[in-house]
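Hi V.,

You were right to ask for the full record rather than a summary. Here it is.
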Amino acid sequence: MSRLRIGLVLCVLSLLDGTAGQARGQDTNPFAGDAAAIAEGEALFQAVCTGYCHVMPDIEREAKAPSLFDCESKYGNSDKEMFQVLLDGVPNTEMAPWKGQLPDDMLWQILAYVKSASRCQEGKAADGQKTAAIAAHE
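Predicted structure:
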């Protein structure tokens, strides 16, 4: 097999694994502030995370897992810490690891949405309403 073919095969495999481009080892979310990525992250969150464990920020129902939209994270609030939780899960809890289940870009998009909808971020009005910039993706 030629070097070119080997290179192409490795490139495709890394894309399928989600490790190319915006991937592991980053300290900040590559999709932060990207309205299209945030909207995609919201759809992914609804499809993947709310069916069994988490709830959307405006839903008032009992959930099996903690809210991801308040300011009380036991496992860190930085992009890097939150991404690591998605990759590795949380031992001795129902939070399963997503490493290898979804491409890294999708995990980053989910985190971009969660952070954009957070109740504890800057940019929320005093009454808790989203600012126009944050609501733009909806």
